[in-house]
Amino acid sequence: MKKPAKLVVLISGNGSNLQAIIDACANKQLNAEIVGVIANKENAYGLERARKADIPALVKLPLAQQERHEYDADLAKTVAAYQPDWIVLAGWMRILSLAFLKHFPHKVINLHPALPGMFPGTKAIERALADFQAGKIKHTGVMVHLVPDEDIDCGPILNQVNVPIYLEDTLPTLAERVHQAEHQLLIDTLCQLITKNHA
Ligand code: GRF
Description:
By secondary structure, the chain is of the alpha/beta class. It has 6 helices and 7 strands. The chain has helices at residues 16-26, 46-52, 68-80, 98-101, 124-133, 171-197, and strands spanning 5-11, 32-39, 57-59, 86-89, 108-112, 139-146, 157-164. The protein is globular and about 50 Å long. 36% of the residues are buried.
């Protein structure tokens, strides 16, 4: 067995995708170790999930008047200290500039609860449901992609999967289905990346 891939996971909130990675590492579905979790919000519940799993977790709040590139350069230093193989943006609700990204080419992956080119940014699930109800789309989906630059929810696609929408769906029922699909797709994608790059 090769050495586990080292993952740093960046979060802003609930951390259900972080939990999916924690579980997949624990049950050996993923030959990986989460070496650090960083949140940009103090109250991100994912921090609790990390601590319960004995994973080093820290909060990095933007300082008042700190320029974006300063925060990002500082965040890059913190992340680099973990020497990660992959950096996973799992519900990280902050755009990363090149001041961060230039340090980790081909190593940053993002998860988005919509298909490529559809509903970038926030409230993607809500917007998909509204477009479905307006007859504009027949389904939605989720994707995992590399993050080469500052474009929002955009970059070389690693994997994507369709998620059906039903007439009786409400935001909670659709959100639940989309999140299930995200957890699965994220783990499948990490498995593929790790198998391909750490064999
Ligand atoms: C996910 O839908 C992710 O795609 C989006 O924010 C949500 C985070 O969920 N960017 P969680 O914090 O992993 O539960």
